[in-house]
């Protein structure tokens, strides 16, 4: 099966606003749609500790987003032979010792069937605790199985966040309750960012 991990199509330099600016954008967009809103800038919690128990401390400095694979691997043909290695992707993204986290499709050769995945890989320590969910007919009342795999691989596609693995960075943290507008949370955030930043 071909390893497609080095097939980099493009590097996109994005506008990176300050957390203070993002905080103000979130406050404005969220208060239009929710009755109770709190927005703070804080250090990302240590995700290596309970209840998270991930392989790295959390979102760190030098964040990169890797959009890998995509719908072209699903349609018109189902390309389960298109495999990806997170270790190689870290090198391609110029963060070979990154913390890597994000959703995707589980590695077909490892799992033996189609599965959903949440990647959790610490490239600095070499530790992988990626979670997968797979359909398991005949598994009693539970029709699916969740488990961890220790291989930093996946098939078809993934949306990965890579950052320095050593220390958590500052993040914008928000809580909302009681929706009063038409928009759900995701749409509210997306539209608020689009309205404020436009084509930046």
From TrEMBL:
Residue stretches spanning the membrane: none
InterPro entries (UniProt xref): C11orf54_DUF1907
Pfam families: DUF1907
Gene Ontology MF annotations: hydrolase activity, acting on ester bonds; zinc ion binding
Record domain DUF1907: where: 25-200
Protein name, entry field: DUF1907 domain-containing protein
Localization, UniProt: Nucleus
Quaternary structure annotation from Swiss-Prot or TrEMBL: Monomer.
Cellular component GO terms held in the UniProt record: nucleus
UniProt keyword terms in alphabetical order: Hydrolase, Metal-binding, Nucleus, Zinc
């Amino acid at each position: 099966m071909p390893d497609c991990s080095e097939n980099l199509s493009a590097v996109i330099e994005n506008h990176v606003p300050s957390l203070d600016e993002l905080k103000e954008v979130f406050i404005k967009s969220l208060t239009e749609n929710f009755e109770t809103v709190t927005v703070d800038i804080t250090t990302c919690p240590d995700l290596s500790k309970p209840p998270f128990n991930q392989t790295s401390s959390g979102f760190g400095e030098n964040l990169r987003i890797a959009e890998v694979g995509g719908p072209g691997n699903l349609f018109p043909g189902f390309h389960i032979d298109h495999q990806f290695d997170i270790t190689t992707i870290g090198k391609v993204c110029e963060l070979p010792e990154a913390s890597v986290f994000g959703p995707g499709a589980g590695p077909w050769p490892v799992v033996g069937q189609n599965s959903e995945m949440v990647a959790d890989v610490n490239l600095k320590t070499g530790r992988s605790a990626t979670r997968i969910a797979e359909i398991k007919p005949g598994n009693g009342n539970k029709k699916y199985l969740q488990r961890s795999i220790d291989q930093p691989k996946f098939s078809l596609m993934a949306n990965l966040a890579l950052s320095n693995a050593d220390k958590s960075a500052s993040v914008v943290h928000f809580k909302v309750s009681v929706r009063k507008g038409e928009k759900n949370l995701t749409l509210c955030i997306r539209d608020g960012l689009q309205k404020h930043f436009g084509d930046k």
